[in-house]
Structure formats: structure tokens, C-alpha cells
Write a structure and sequence with these properties.
With 221 residues, this protein is of the alpha/beta class. Helix content is 50%, strand content 12%. The model has no long low-confidence stretch (mean pLDDT 86).
């Protein structure tokens, strides 16, 4: 079983729960941090000392408490952690249910497991630790069901133009002008809003920024 684990979680009660789960499995060499910047510093220090962490458990969303931070979300933390230590195992522990996006992260081995904060999450975390230690991947059962229930969205040419323009900093209200210049139809603002709403709903995203990041990650834009 893992011997050295780093946990990035900004909610104290959740931190205590993770600690109890790890103790039940005999994992005592753990470090808990509330900020992503601190997590990166601990990873760097552990590498420098020749005793790197074997596993990072991180949330996706970290609340803003007005403490200045260079890294303020779990996805950026994961990217930097992997750059620093490519062999680091990573489990996402989050209430976010972005099934398609998380499935893509696991299939590309960017992360090794996803445990959703929900009923039986303590049990699921124990299962994840066992599976990932054995070099397998893990997703909470409810996440798997969500992926199976949803058909993958087939991105149209219009969808990709919309997302690409958003990624370039074009505001949503100005996209119709760009589409009209390229003779792409439909180009009305209402049509654009409907396509974005559909894509976010199917992919399980709340914000356009998450949709853009997903499309970049899988190489669509």
C-alpha cells in the first residue's frame, strides 16, 4: 500500500474524513494542505529531499478566501504536479460530476482515479487506493453509470468554431459577426447560446471555460 500521500483539500471536515480512511489502511505518512500552491511546494520539497510522494489526492474546486494564490484549482495543480513528477499517482476527490471530462483524464492516464464526494465515498476511496496501488484505474460507481448513460457529444463544425472563438477571447455576443464573416450558419446569437447550453449539459460542465479546457485537452481545438 502507499506509504507517502499528499492531500489537497480546502474543507477541514473532508480533510479529517480522508485522514481517517487512510489511517484505516495503515497509511500514516501523510501531509494535508488547504491550498494548491502549498501542495506544489510540498511536492517540490519531497523530490528535492529524495523522498517523493507516491500519491496526490486533490479536489477540483478550491474556494477563494482572499488568500493570494498562483494556482487556484485542482486541474492546474494536477498539470503542474505531473510536470514535476510524471510517475505521481493522482486521485481526484470531488463533488463535481463532470463524467465525460473525468473519463478522458483517466483514459489518458493524466489521473489514475476519481472518487465522487457522495454516499459511500469513504468506501470508494478505499477501493480506489487498492486499485491504483495495483496499477489499475478507478472511478466511483455512480460516475461510471453517468458515463454509460450519456452518449458522447458529437461536435459539429459549428460547435468547434464557437469553442475556438471563445478560446481566442471573442465574447459570446460577438461570435455571430465572426460566423457571418466566414459564411457559417446558423450564426444567430440564440443558436449559439443553444449549442453552448447543449454541449455543457451533455458534457456535465457549468461554465464555458470548462468546455474550452476539455476541447483543448482532447485536441479538438
Amino acid at each position: 500500500m502507499f506509504k507517502k500521500v499528499l492531500i489537497a483539500e480546502d474543507h477541514e471536515i473532508a480533510n479529517i474524513s480522508v485522514q481517517k480512511t487512510l489511517q484505516d489502511l495503515g497509511i500514516s505518512n501523510t501531509k494535508y494542505v488547504y491550498y494548491c500552491d502549498h501542495a506544489v511546494n510540498w511536492i517540490k520539497n519531497a523530490i528535492r529531499e529524495g523522498e517523493p510522494y507516491e500519491l496526490l489526492i486533490t479536489d477540483l474546486i478550491f474556494e477563494d478566501d482572499n488568500t493570494p494564490q498562483q494556482i487556484d484549482n485542482g486541474i492546474d495543480l494536477i498539470r503542474i504536479a505531473k510536470q514535476l513528477q510524471p510517475d505521481l499517482k493522482i486521485i481526484i476527490l470531488s463533488a463535481e460530476l463532470r463524467s465525460s471530462y473525468i473519463d478522458e483524464l483517466i483514459r489518458n492516464r493524466i489521473v489514475d482515479g476519481y472518487v465522487r464526494k457522495a454516499r459511500k465515498d469513504g468506501q470508494h476511496l478505499k477501493e480506489a487506493l487498492g486499485e491504483i496501488y495495483a496499477n489499475r484505474t478507478y472511478q466511483s460507481p455512480d460516475v461510471k453509470e453517468s458515463i454509460q448513460d450519456k452518449n458522447s457529444h458529437e461536435f459539429s463544425t459549428l460547435d468547434l468554431h464557437i469553442i475556438s472563438l471563445l478560446s481566442q477571447g471573442v465574447s459570446q455576443k460577438n461570435i455571430p459577426v465572426y460566423l457571418q464573416q466566414r459564411d457559417i450558419r446558423p450564426s444567430g446569437l440564440s443558436s449559439i447560446e443553444k449549442r453552448l447550453n447543449l454541449m455543457r449539459d451533455v458534457m456535465g460542465f457549468a461554465k464555458n471555460e470548462q468546455l474550452i479546457l476539455y476541447c483543448k485537452d482532447i485536441g479538438l481545438i
